Fold each of these.
Amino acid sequence: MSEIKILTDSSAQLTPEEIKKYHITVVPLSVTIDGNTYIDGVEITRQQFVQKMSESKKLPTTSQPPIGTIVDTINELTKDGSEVIGIFLAKVLSGTIDAARQAVKLTGKSDLVHIVDSELTDRSEGFQVLAAARDAAAGKTIPEILAHIEKIKKTQRLHLLVVNLENVIKGGRLGPLAGKIVNMLNIRIELQMPNGHLKIAKKGRGKKFSLAFDKRILDEIEANKEKIKEVGISYVANGSTPQKLLDLAQKIKDINSKIDVLVRETSPIIATHAGMGAYAILYYTE
């Protein structure tokens, strides 16, 4: 029976339960560490990746899904006449969305497949995916779902705190500007992605900067507490969830107990470029 199906990539922050409940199809990226390549989420878990990254002397690399894999996935999802909404991580971070668009052309099913640049990644991408999946389950049309996604994109926020610049510089994501600040003592930076563009929003030194970062985001959430239903806290850590982030999640719940907060390890693509100790707070307003 034809329906509207949701497709995304493995950088989206989704729990196994959410993927199963909404029948979301995930095409995995690949990661290469010390010459060994693994399929994200299939041959390596997020925790295993961070462990290997911490032991590697070289910066891991990430690769978009093969076009052939996306072609096969699209053909499988549409074989019963179903339409597909594919939501992928920001173009500035990966060529995945370009590969998806090429795959749609190769299948000749542009009338059935609708590709969306989330302009972000991680839980922000996940918010869009979940909204689309819930809308589809509720019987909404393609135009209605796409309009809802665009509405979310306009109010979504990603605040990423990077406490170790080594991976950011090696990855070359920030260009010469990052190189100018890397030698400053104990520098930490806040990254944001307005309209899908990665930028340094603020920079400062040490724990004082981190505390100010937390307070500022909590103040934002306080100011919008009735408009926020979900918050994601994603992190890079070698081991269990840092207590600091569990405490941060509780502070958000204290602001509004109705806000759902997901604290979870980020994907390899973000971990690679953000580095150990980084964490992001992601939300959108309604």
Amino acid sequence: MTDTSAARARLLDIIKDKAIVHGRVTLSSGKEADYYVDLRRITLDGEASPLVGVVMRDLIADLDYDAVGGLTLGADPVATSILHASAAAGDRKDAFVVRKAGKAHGLQQRIEGPSIEGRRVVVVEDTTTTGNSPIDAVEAAREAGAEVVAIATIADRATGAAQRFEDAGIEYRYVYDLEELGLA
């Protein structure tokens, strides 16, 4: 499916059907919520993953970047979906993975994949809540010599991350907000 508006609509339907879990949950921030948006159910789904690539690629299409990636695990399938959607469109984009901590063995790298040194990158993730994961990825990418162009996510939970990114001077984009997800 290459029609972006159709891909966006279908992806939203799949998210609502498979990824929104209602009930009391404790978030990574330690706060409690009445629902959980489990986008790994989407980013690793055979139908939804290609749609993620199409929709996310469209979201950042006007940006000048070479690679996409972020903090493992949420960012990994998002980045590879963008890599594949870009390749299918004849446009090469690399993906990278930011480890939560550097490896103690081998090359002891914190960032895996093609080198991002001297390259323009977009930090991605599946769902943004506090902004801790993308900020951590931004710091790691900068330490590796990359220029971070923006942060992009599939779903924004409207819990302060946007302001945090703005305060840090980082452009922030997302595909769906709480209202579109039926959670506002």
